[in-house]
Protein 1
Amino acid sequence: MLNKVMIGRYYPIDSFVHKMNPLAKIICILLFVVMIFLTYDFRFNIIISILLLLMLSNTKVPFNVYLKTVLSIKWLLLFIFLINLILGTSLQITIITIMRLIYVVLYTSILTLTTPPTEITYGLEKLFLPLRIIGIPVNKMALSISLALRFIPTIIDQGNKIIKSQASRGIDYNHCNLKGKILSLKSLIIPMFVLSFKKADDLADAMEVRLYNVNSKRVNFRQNRWGFYDTFLVLMHLSLFVLIVREVFL
Amino acid sequence: MEVKFNHVYYVANEKTPLSHLVLGDINITFKEGTINGIIGRSGSGKTTLIELINALILPTKGNISVGSKVISKTRKIKNINNLRYQIGLVFQFPEEQFFCKTVKEEIEFGMKYFKKSVKSIEKHVSDALLMVGLDDSYLNRNPYTLSSGEMRKVAIASILAFNPKIVILDEPTVGLDNKSKENLIKIIRLLKKRYNKTVIIVSNDTDMLLEISDHIVLLDKGKIVLEGDKYDVFKQDLEQYGVKKPKIIEFEQMVLKEKNIKIGYRDDINDLMKDVYRYVK
């Protein structure tokens, strides 16, 4: 049941987007998200769409994976559409709003599909490194992010196990009505909470036993080199970003 | 009730790059009123096999018939609770399924879903607890404060309470002390002899399986390697499949190999005793 959740899953194949430096990918995403929310201009939207399509095709991830990701937010999209209808927003703006949301989800799923969680943390750590000057503990932040990311699949697996063991005791999650579904959630959420806290406690103990120290300096297992494609893509995004900013504000 | 696997295949994470074959061409019959053991190294597909029986997952190819019902990917089962009512499945880590405040509610829970009357529920709860060797003082305790052995017992009780025709146990002896283990063996024997239930046990505790089971299935890499009477299976070379032989059979074979005499034809009983002593020492 929870296997269908595609957001935040790594897709292990070999492509040049997979080989890119995570820091470059994160910078590209930030630029992309900012510039997509800046412009209502038709021409720029087309350029952004082409950029997105290029990136998507270069990841070599099958297209239905992306389709699943978009389908997983279909209710949110419907909700936005209905709210816009009620408020009487023009159809063009509604469509652009929905397109923006889909684009953001697609582009961020490029990051999560092509980068393992540990590498994303590496990228974030490098991105926030300048903040160390004003005394923000970047290391600790990176650690908590990587731990949180590391627990997503564990919790999904845990959820699957609990669903199975409750189903064997008679709860039918799939074939009951809405009221039954809400009631049966209780039997899923309580064990999840208890087990998650237990696991977190165990992890803290295991780290302490192995003398983990947050403040010591860490090195990376995989060396992430900054390559030609990284520079190229960041520059491409940056130039588009500058163009859009100039168009909108000047 | 009989469970029959017909050319069952199961592929995990189908249509993703992580897809792999978990079970391939499984053909087994678990007859009514027998105790069946499933052994094999971890990752050989034992747990998947028992989840298929309960229709928690559906086979990719082939079908499984449980009594008159047939589980397959193409045919949808109309009332799945009817099927699950007849199959009691105890998972490996019972603490995963607890969510009620007291042990009593926990045991009642399954029965409420299977629509039993209130009067019979009360009686069933204390009976089920008694069967697993816990008394009524446990009824009002919080399941999370129990030890792991007691948790397993409560989980087994919550399954036995609704009197299923097929009982499936996933690694039932892990984390149990010797007395509880003996108790569990007694319960399983009782289930077979008095109630004529089909029992399926997934375990690597071959000593226990030799003691109670009738039929053994050995899985390796998702395929059935050996199947049959327990003595026939346990006498084979099991080391290559990552399974330890029962101590009694290991001892018997050791004696045969070293002394070149069959145990049944010994001249002197003292010789055998010496061997036993040496082995135990």
Protein 2
Amino acid sequence: MRRLVITILSCFLFIWAQAQYPGYKSVANTDAFKKSFTQTSQKTNTLKSDFTQEKTLSMLAEKIVSKGKFYFKKENAIRMEYTSPFQYLMVINGNNVYIKDNQKENKMSAKSNKLFQSINRIMMDCVKGTIFDNKDFLVKLFESGDSYLAELTPVTKDLKKMFSKINMISVKKDNLVKKIEMHEPSGDKTVLSFINPELNTNLADALFNTN
Amino acid sequence: MRFLIPISIVFILAACGSSYKHLQKSNGSATCIAGLTPQINTTLYRAQINITGHYLSGLLLIKQLPDSSVRLLFTNEAGFKFFDFGFPTTGNMVVHHITDKMNKKAVIKTLRKDFQLLLMNRLSEAKYLSKTDGKNQYHIYKQGKDYYYYQTNNHCDSLVAMERGSKRKNVVDIQFTGMQKTLPDSVYIKHNNFAFNIALKQINNYAE
């Protein structure tokens, strides 16, 4: 009888996981993934990629698409350069943030701004493979034939206000993150897709200058 | 020191001077403004907002919904929402979302009045009067204690300026370009009594 209940429950869980993410099934043992993802991340000194950002506004049935270039350099430096349909530059290096838009340059500490602190932490965790160690999220793992999907559900009050969940999708063959989906409690979402990633190319420190 | 008191009096008198004292009553009509009210097609702006030394930049989306209400949503460039306001055809503005930092009564009230002036929202509910300075017509709408001023040329074929204030004093100016019965290409909302301004520039081709 007990075995029957467990079997039925397992079937329900499997069906639920399939329904939530079509083509994906739940991964119970995440150790193998964590190990391989962390190994790849440890070997990643720099990452350069094009990106597309798609903001979907559910209530307004609107999409805002922007494009640009993404750069990462160990240990904690990120540069996001929006090039279309507007120009905007955001550099986060450790705790320092540098912003440049059409009119203005702005420097601040990531510590003083919860928003940049969150962006910084999420990006770094996704690129460096430390997302499973982030106590701010409950992490569930799903897999399809060629990718992994890590579902991050925020547990802190501040993050819950901003996101209902964040999905990080990585390619199995090279463990590179190809998509980050940030879902908001309102039903809106922002999807960042990384295109043509280049690993360990020479990236000048000047790209990450925040002064 | 002996000049200080007279100089102060001059400054106080200048500050008390009416911005609209020179206007004379005229026989303008509210139908003039009805004909110049912008048709709200979905419009995306690059936005810069300065609120008393705090600078925010991002994207402002304005969209008319099927029920004719207008939604106005401001996010930063990375997609994080600052505020989401709804302007129904009648009744008060609805705050669908606002970040904790901006969630102050005075900030919401100021933004509501500024966008109401720009969108020419709820004018039919306001008391109308018209004046002239000889050159332009002033179409004035009184809502509560606020006066919304829309300046047109005498032929009423173009909107020249938008202002908000009291009966005597100008408080907010909106400068704009490219407003042909649509929302303007660029907008600059300037408060004259404190450091609060909003600059908007339209973005095209944002939904590939």
